[in-house]
Structures are given as structure tokens and as C-alpha cells.
Amino acid sequence: MRLVNALGLAFLLVLVTGGQLAQANDARETRVGWLERCPHEPDPTVDEVNRSALIGGLIAAIAPKLIEGTVDAAAEALKAAGQAKTSTTTARNGASFYKVGQDADLIVASTCLAVVRGTFKQGAASAAEFGWANPSTPFHGLQHANLQFEAKVVPIKGAKFFRLVPQYLRHNGDFEDTGWFAGKQRDFLLAMAMSLPGSAQPFGQADFLFHDVVQGSELVAPNALLTAATSLPIAFPAETSDATKAKTQLEATLSPWLLAMDILMPAVKKAVPPPPSLFEGTTLAAATARYCTEIRRLNAQTPEKFQLGDTRCTYELDVPRASMESTSAQANRSPLRVDWAQQLCGSFTPAAGTAAPICSRFANDPNVQAARTLVTGKLFTHVTTQLTLSETREGSKLAQFFGNALSAAKTEVSTVLKDKLLPKTSEQKATEAEAERAAANGVLLADLKVTQAEEELAEALAAASPVASDITAARIDLLKSKIESNKARRDAHMPVLYSEVQ
User: Fold this and answer.
1) For 429-483, how does the pLDDT look when each residue is reduced to its tens digit (9 = 90+)?
2) CB 382 within 8 A of CB 197
3) What Å distances lie between residue 329 and 148, 254, 324, 475, CA to CA?
4) What CA–CA distance (Å, rounded) separates 120 from 127?
5) Which strand (E) or helix (H) includes residue 192?
6) SS3 for 410-450, per residue?
């Protein structure tokens, strides 16, 4: 009997302590980091290869001049909501988010978020199956991966946001908190928050939830379970001053070449001529003249700050303005400007098909080469990534928590997205003279045209089959819009936004 009791006590001791002892001797670590490309990302299609060098320009075209937003910090919430049967580990990594491309585009330096829970050997090479980990500081020396997760950065077309789209999930080894009565499935939640140095709140977060994962399971994109775990939109981090400076310096060097190509490219005729002015062939001119005369008469008897103004009273400029705009294309290609452009470009090959217009002296110009060399290999905008990895036996409790957390964050996230995506307008008081109001309106219109040009460049870059000549034309339009914005701001005695151009 004593022997049976002793065996029973020993058996109970194994049941209670078996899992803890197994973990006590386990040297597993959780690490998070950014890779240039996901190791298990599907091979790109022909169209994706053609635009792979251009996708980063999407970010430049929608330059992320963002205000940092507050998001729901799911990682911190998970720590506070820990359950008895939930094993939680954390990891942190700092990496630079951007680099500057050869055409002054702001490009995501590393497009893959990777998470590994496994064993590492300091100073040693990674195991053969993890050759991708050797060039990466966070994952160098990886010997065995119990859990491996990869998510790809996918920009949202025409918006200042991206999604993290899962590409790979694999569990290979023992679960955490093992024991005799432990289940054969686990729920995994990976909660990630990204923040800039010195920031009180993260600028973006993502939560990836996977139910009923079994040992040895492997998911590879394209896979419905991976796609379903795609993150909510995340704002691109605001570029830091060093990135802006590098972009500005390179743009200043490239802008004369873009202007020269614009001058030398054949003018594109509009398919539909503009409509005649409202004031031509109608009685509107006389009615407007009477109205504006009455405004001037009333203003002569009214203190300045209470005087009225109406932009329609500039109707006499409509016809001359239309005439000026109709001849601007010819003026842009005047003999003097064409001569200047030819001297700069040398021989010029206009666009044909998907080919970009070429200035023969452009690529070999020492100033262009020197400016591009200055940004080659440099990284900008340091971002801290905080990860919480949670493994839970009872998926229903975790799912309930995740649903509550997501529901609680819904209002806040929606507010942030609405604040970022929807343009804001504010009414301006009519306290300035007519000339000042016209100058201010000119600045607003010029800045809106810059935004429109940025969006058009973004659309050209994100096309399924990008056309190089369309992209070059869009870059030229963006440059010209910046020049017009600077002119409007100088007229309004306001500081210019684009010092790298005229």
C-alpha cells in the first residue's frame, strides 16, 4: 500500500510539475524584426516584378505629412488581461523604416514583419533551413523555430496607409504550458505596436489572431486563414527631418531634368476644347458689372473690416485668363526654353510604348550621380516595434477577449482613420481686403493641385501594368504643381513649402 501511495504521489507530482520543468529547461526566446522581403512570400508575378521598383514611389507620391494618432494599445491590454492558461511573451526591436530611392522617392526599407519564437545560438550561423536569418541582426543564430510568422507591407492605393498581410505561419515543436491534460490545440494572438522615439503613443498597431493551431501546422500564402488575419489600415510613420532633407536635396538636383523633358516632349492635345466663358455672348457681364458697382458703392460707406467682397467681380479677367492659359503650352516650348532643354539633355528620345523619355546626359551627369550616391544605402526614420505573443489553451476565452478589445478600439480607430482620410476644411472670416483674399485662395488652390498631382502619381505607380512614360509625366506635373504653389505663396507673402524647386 505504501508503495502504491508513493507511486501515486510521484504520478501527481509529474502531472503538476511536468510542464513547468519542461519550460524551465527551455531556452526559447521571442524575437521580432523587419526583413527586406518575407522568406515565404510567393514569387511575384510579371506585373509585380515590373512595378517592384516603383511601389516605393507610392509613398513619395502621398508624402506622409501625418499627425501622430493615438491607437488602442492591444499589447498592453493583453498583459493586463492575462489568464491562468495563457502564456505571454514580449519582444522589442528598433529599425529604420524608410530609405530614399534614386528618383527621390521615399521607400519602405523593409517590407516584411517577422516574428520567431525559438532557440538562438549567439555568434553561430543560423541552421540551414533558416538561411534567411543570417543577414538579419534580430534573427541571426536561429537554430529552431517553434513559431514563425511573416506579414508583408501592402500599401493602400491612394491613401497614406498600409496593411500587414500575413504570408506564413508555422508551429513546429512543443506548445507552451504543456502537461498531461493540456489540449492539442492553441490559439495564438500576436499584438504589435509601432512608435517613434519620444512618442507617448504608438502611431500604428496590428493584431493577428489564429484559432485552433495544432503542432506541426503550416500556412503559406495564398491561404484564406492568413488573408482573414490581415491587419486594419496602419498610418505610415511621419518622415523624420533627415529623410526630408535627403529627399529635398535629391529633388533639387533632379528637377531641372524633369523640366527639360517636359519642354522637349510633344504637347498633348486636349480631346475636348474648353467651353466658352459664361460672359461671352450673354447678358451676364452687364448684370455682374451692376452688382459689383453696388458692392463698391456700399464698401465706400462701410468700415474696412465690414466691407464685402466677391470673387465674381473679377469677371473682366476671365477672357484674358483663358487666352493666357491657352497659350501657356506654346510659351513652355518657346525657342529659348527648347534651346536650354536641348543643351541640358543632349539627345532626347520621347516615350514610346512603356519606355520612359530619355535625356542622354541624364544618367551620366556628375551632379546627378553625386546626389544619388549621397542617399544610397542610407536608412531613415527609426521606429520601435513592440510585440506581445500570447498562446492560450482555451480559444473561446481569447476570442472573447479579442472581440471585446477590437470592439473597444473600433470607435477610436475609426476616428483616427476618418481624421486621416477625410480632408478638413475651415471657414475663413472675410476680414481681409479683396487682394489678400484672392492671394490666400490662390495658395489653397495651388496646394490642392499639388495634392491632386501626388494622387495622380500614386495611381500611375500603383497601376497593374505601370507605364514608364505616364509615371514620368506624372512626376513632371507634380514638379510643376510645386512650382505654382511656391509662386502663389510668394504672392501671398507666405513661406514656400518646396524650397527644392523654383
Assistant:
1) 444 556 677 777 788 888 888 888 888 887 787 777 778 888 888 888 888 888 8
2) yes
3) 57, 22, 10, 17
4) 10
5) strand 185-195
6) HHHHHHHHHHHHCCCCCCCCCCCCHHHHHHHHHHHHHHHHH
